[in-house]
Design brief:
- The chain has 197 residues and is an alpha+beta fold.
- The protein has 4 helices and 9 strands, in the order H-E-H-H-H-E-E-E-E-E-E-E-E.
- The longest helix has 27 residues.
């Protein structure tokens, strides 16, 4: 069987895959926090993996597409010499400065299946931080809004509880006893964002 006739189509498919993976990584990195699609925010968790896969697909596209060209080896060398260290540096920076987010609570609004309260605990900083969000809508068009952030720099600032007070109102209580209520617009946008600590 003659595999040479499949080289160009395979190279083209790998190039399209590399562009798609790179675009997904950039979309994840550039997605804003307020009202951003939850799907794009989840891509942030896989940016390095997407980058490595895009680099591998691009390298494969060059190797297959430029089989008899004198540009093949220099182009692959440039890709690997620039791409691999950048991704390694990004992985190191993510490990040192990134910290991990853990979803500690997810609760649907009473009487509404299209609105969820989500509490995320962030580690990696000196103090624990709890962030409260509202996810509005249904996948894949679900959007995330920040409702509050509690920095555990002192015991009284830690988040003690968060719950629905009504389908359009969230009640958050700090360890020190302070109670904060936030009202949501029909699209899920909060009337204010609480910052404690």
């Amino acid at each position: 069987m003659n595999f040479t006739r499949y080289r160009r189509p395979s190279a083209f498919l790998l190039l399209v895959l590399a562009v798609g993976l790179g675009a997904a990584a950039i979309a994840g990195l550039e997605s804003g926090d307020e009202g951003a699609l939850v799907l794009l925010l989840r891509l942030r968790e896989y940016v390095l993996l997407l980058g490595w896969l895009a680099l591998a697909a691009l390298t494969g596209a060059v190797l297959l597409g430029l089989a008899k060209s004198s540009l093949r080896v220099p182009l692959v060398t440039v890709l690997l010499v620039i791409g691999a260290p950048m991704l390694l540096l990004g992985g190191f920076a993510s490990a040192v400065f990134g910290g991990s987010d853990e979803e500690v609570k997810a609760e649907s609004a009473p009487g509404r299946g299209d609105r969820r309260l989500v509490v995320v605990a962030r580690s990696g900083s000196l103090e624990p931080v709890w962030c409260v969000y509202v996810d509005q809508g249904n996948p894949p068009l679900e959007r995330r809004w920040s409702v509050g952030c509690f920095n555990g720099d002192s015991e009284g600032n830690a988040l003690s509880d968060s719950a629905w007070a009504a389908p359009d109102r969230i009640r958050m209580t700090a360890e020190g006893g302070a109670v904060h209520e936030v009202t949501l617009a029909p699209d899920g946008r909060p009337d204010r964002v609480v910052s404690v600590g």
